[in-house]
Specification:
Blueprint lengths: L1 H6 L12 E8 L5 E5 L4 E15 L2 E6 L3 E4 L5 E4 L6 E8 L11 H11 L3 E2 L3 E2 L4 H19 L4 H18 L4 E2 L2 H23 L6 H7 L4 H12 L3 H19 L4 H7 L5 H12 L3 H9 L2
Antiparallel strand pairs: 1-7, 2-6, 3-4, 3-5, 3-6, 3-7, 5-9, 8-10
Helix pairs in contact: 3-4, 6-7, 8-11
Protein name: AraC family transcriptional regulator
GO molecular function: DNA-binding transcription factor activity; sequence-specific DNA binding
Keywords: DNA-binding, Transcription, Transcription regulation
Length: 295
């Protein structure tokens, strides 16, 4: 449990009375780095401009303008810029508890209660080129607007829009019911969370495959196959990718030399660090640092 909590996002999104928050994210020169994490809240994401890379559980995809995604409570996810590609996206993060009714009616028993208990899931992708998706997107944009203005009753309006979104999903039969296969996937994702949490906690040190395999109770050979099948990267590829993303953060915001960043993120060989950095970012660490010095 301790390791899993390393990946849990404990950020307070809103307040106890208003447990939601909207993040409007604009990255003109790329640089968006949101490593693997999970939270109890539901997250709705709309890409207004540009493109970026998103992973939800084991599925990684490039996402583009006008696409809309749902991240369920406790789902592991990460988001990154694609090189220096610009992007604008909006994320609504809210506690699913705000949907709950005191009166246990049909809506509560058939939709809200199962959502809260994770036996009913939102679809990950909303097709905005279809009528139902266009209606959902319109409601999401209304949420953005009323949150910005915050006239009396704005929170009621937000909740009304969320209920309307749920009703559209129900009408289109797009909710996902937890099946045996999904429960098995959920168990596997818990194992992945343990391994990734260990990497995030120890990335500055040497990490051995035998150590990672021990964390999840597998032999090293099986663990490597399991990790690659679940994450679509080998453990070493994931470790290096995470280290480079942490290097991006340091180069964006701290006055450190390339060698200092290299050592801080766990690389021992500067030449290897520069090669991997260039492969991932299409520029050297020094070029990357200079881009953000000019902003």
């Amino acid at each position: 449990m301790k390791n899993l909590n390393k990946l849990k996002d404990f950020t307070k999104h809103g307040t106890a009375q208003l447990p939601l928050y909207i993040y409007n994210q604009y990255y003109e020169h790329g640089g968006l780095t949101v490593p693997y994490h999970w939270h109890e809240e539901i997250e709705l994401i709309y890409v207004e401009e540009g493109s970026m890379e998103m992973t939800i559980n084991t599925i990684t995809k490039r996402v583009y303008k006008n696409q809309f995604f749902c991240i369920n409570s406790q789902e592991l996810h990460q988001i990154y810029s694609i090189g220096r590609t610009s992007s604008i996206h909006h994320a609504l993060v809210f506690s699913p508890d705000i949907l709950s009714f005191e009166y246990f009616d049909h809506s509560q028993s058939h939709f809200i209660h199962p959502l809260l208990n994770h036996t009913l899931l939102l679809p990950q992708v909303i097709c905005t080129d279809k009528p139902y998706g266009q209606e959902i997107l319109k409601l999401f944009l209304e949420i953005l607007e009323v949150n910005k203005v915050r006239k009396p009753g704005w929170y009621l309006n937000v909740k009304a829009c969320l209920y309307k979104i749920l009703s559209i999903l129900a009408g289109e039969d797009l909710f996902i019911t937890m099946t045996h296969n999904l429960k098995n996937l959920g168990y596997k994702m818990e194992q992945v969370k343990k391994a990734i949490a260990y990497i995030h906690e120890n990335f500055t040190e040497r990490i051995y495959i035998t150590e990672l395999a021990k964390v999840v109770g597998m032999n090293p050979q099986y663990f490597c196959r399991f990790f690659k099948a679940m994450v679509n990267k080998t453990p070493i590829e994931y470790i290096n990718n995470y280290r480079i993303n942490r290097a991006n953060k340091y180069l964006q915001s701290e006055d450190l030399s390339v060698l200092e960043v290299c050592l801080r993120v766990g690389f021992q060989n500067p030449s290897y660090f520069i090669k991997l950095f260039k492969d991932q970012n299409n520029m050297t660490p020094l070029e990357y640092k200079n881009v953000f010095l000019k902003i």
